[in-house]
Amino acid sequence: MATTQSGLSRRRGGPLPAGAQSSHNGTAPFAHGVSSPPGASLNGTSPTQRFGGVAAAASGAGGASSRPTTPAGHRVAFDERDLESSEDQIMPKLTLMEEVLLLGLKDKQGYLSFWNDNISYTLRGCIVLELALRHRIAMVRDPNRRRFPLADRYIEVVDDRLTGEVLLDEALKMMKISERMSVGTWIDLMSGETWNVMKIGYQLKQVRERLAKGLVDKGVLRTEKRNFLLFDMATHPVSDPTFKDDVLRRTLGLLTARTAAVPTSDLYGERVRYRTIRAVSMVCAAFSANVLENALVHLSYDAREAAFAKCDELLAEFSQWPFAAFRPPTASGGGIGAGSASANVENANLAEINKLARGEMTSGEGGAEGQTQRELHLEVVAAVLEVCRRMDSLL
What we know:
Blueprint: E1 2-5, E2 8-11, H1 47-50, H2 52-62, H3 96-104, H4 119-133, E3 137-139, E4 154-157, H5 166-177, E5 181-182, H6 183-191, H7 207-217, E6 224-228, E7 231-235, H8 241-255, H9 275-288, H10 301-318, H11 340-362, H12 367-394
Antiparallel strand pairs: 1-2, 3-4, 4-5, 6-7
């Protein structure tokens, strides 16, 4: 029997089970208090039929067999964004910004040096680096761009999917809705280095504090209160040293190798995309941010100076496009003098790093078109390192 109210027609349900309360509209209240048993129907229809479109779309998208269920057979609601995606498997646990910040933090005190003015600008460059390595941004595909320096070439968003990292997503959204600008311009604007009051809103504020809080959420750091003269300040000492130990081992493996072979076991995992290019970018960014010395403090004076010289050479080679395009051929044969053997080993090691980087550029899917797109992503990496090298030369 159907009743009509306000032009709407509905059918009354059958008698309710004992103990069940009827709601004001005559339907079983499974939203409050009473839940339907597995397989129970309402008004002679199954839940799938009653909410036909929604259930069918859900089962069609993922399949009922792929949905997690309880032992009683009930399906469990979940957010697919909480599951590990294929991109998470080829990305390291920490971003480049977080690794550079970790190198600058004092382990027990939990704060950066008060005299370091370089790290803020470099961290904005690391944001652009990370977006390029994650294939979110790329150089604008324009043949005329080669007439301009790397830092003056325009970049664009090619994939606006969120990364899950707050700072990266904030920068990505700004780039998406804004006009195309060059690599150097974006780093300047995100750092607040502009006289244009109309673009002051592009500045990313409190980057170091937000990165530190993100590391606290990941279990790498912890938060403490310390008193500095008359003020209380939040500090973030290292809670889990394994992450920083990995960064230190990666840095020392690249800069202090005594053989021609690159210690790939000290780099990122085998499944990490562009692991050699990423490691070189991290070391060069640490050098630009003036925090690299913290990783080399236990070395002797000569070994530390040699590591700085090698990092400077890596920065010079990877801040041009293609990488190491103007590198002289590796010296071969015995040289004269005490330092010739070590110089040959270092040259061979640098050549091996460049070889691994070129291999990462050419490996991947998509054929020739995919190769071209990867080069556009990595050209942004070279442009950011050019900005870092130029900043270091000014200092």
